[in-house]
Amino acid sequence: MPTISVLMPAYNAARYLAKTLDSLFVQTFADWELIVVDDGSTDATPDILRSYADSNVRVIRQANGGEARARNTALDHATGEFIAFLDSDDLYTPNALQDMVTFMRAHPEFDAAFTDGYFCDENDRPLMRLSEHRPGIYTGRILEQVVLSGSVITVPVCTIVRRAIIERHHLRFDPQFVIGPDWDFWIRVARVATFGYIDAITCLYRVHQTNITRTSGRQRRVADLVRGRLKVMNADWFVDLSAATRRQFFFDLLLDLLKDEPDQQAQILDSAPFQTLPPIDRAALWRQVGVDRLRHAATYDFAVRCLTRAQQLDPADRKGRAVMTAMRLGGRPTALAFIRSWQMARRAIDRVRRVSRGGPKPVPSALRPMGN
Questions:
Q1: Residue 171 main-chain phi, psi, to 5 deg
Q2: Which of 51, 76, 52 is nearest to 62 (CA)?
Q3: Four-CA torsion 49, 24, 128, 156, nearest 10 degrees
Q4: What is the rounded distance in angstroms from the CA atom of residue 8 to the CA atom of residue 32?
Q5: pLDDT at 116
Q6: Buried b vs exposed e over 293-312: b needs ≥16 C-beta within 10 Å?
Q7: Which of 37, 77, 146, 263 is the most buried (most CB within 10 A)?
Q8: Quick one: DSSP state of residue 297?
Q9: How many Å is the maximal CA-CA distance in the chain?
Q10: pTM of the predicted protein model
């Protein structure tokens, strides 16, 4: 049995595949197997894979079924003690597997770990460190952080997981997702696993025009992201998350992903999971959605409903009461003028506070990264 199984889905991957494979074959750690799932490629991908034929390389060809199914096929065939993910356009640094395996063997308390690395362009030029993109470096039980942001782990190529925990809980990728199967998978892992952090550069994650996230279209991307959030929201364990996490989760869903979808916003606000928030948090979100919808004349009635409900839940909220007063005095134009004035004043106050503090912005919400 090899120490580590490296899993690679490949679909029409000819442009970068040889470079990716080369980065694996020059690893300082030699006890690995590579499982490539060719997901119905129609370019030169099969020819390139044949040219890298080796006793520790297994190629499985299947009809095109998407990234999640390809990853699941690879997981089904893995035999290593550890699982790592190398997509067909990404790169390992020569020390990647050695650093990951050494860390995991030295820390049996961790079921999984993630590393640092770089985003890179089409010509392998490093752009930005993964750690600079993350909201913080979190370790231990990180479910709440992963629920709030896929950037906590960032990309599969920087991860390693003990295969035992994957098989014990039968963790697999959800084929329903074209965009977001990784985030959904890491939520499943984070529910049962303890994570460590390896402070080493082990990979380059390529950003280019044929990334699936760039070729799927904004509408499809948003639809998949919303589907993933609804799956979390309706899970039986969602209510066990902290109120701070659930509040931020609903804020991101309502005022970012669904900001142009008032009908879906209404469904979320009326949903049973939303009712698990404390009344003051529900009131704030009703008000924030109402203020946002007030900017659109076509959704004025919905805005009034939101602001009215916010006042019912938190009669002491001065912001909501002031907006409602402005609406009664002069309707939508007066309310919008008040909101703009209030927001300008708020930004000015925030700027003064940042200057007076002279330090970095705090991590939002009650969650804190490692070391703080």
A1: -85, 125
A2: 76
A3: 80
A4: 13
A5: 97
A6: bbeeeebbebbbbbbebbbe
A7: 37
A8: G
A9: 78
A10: 0.86
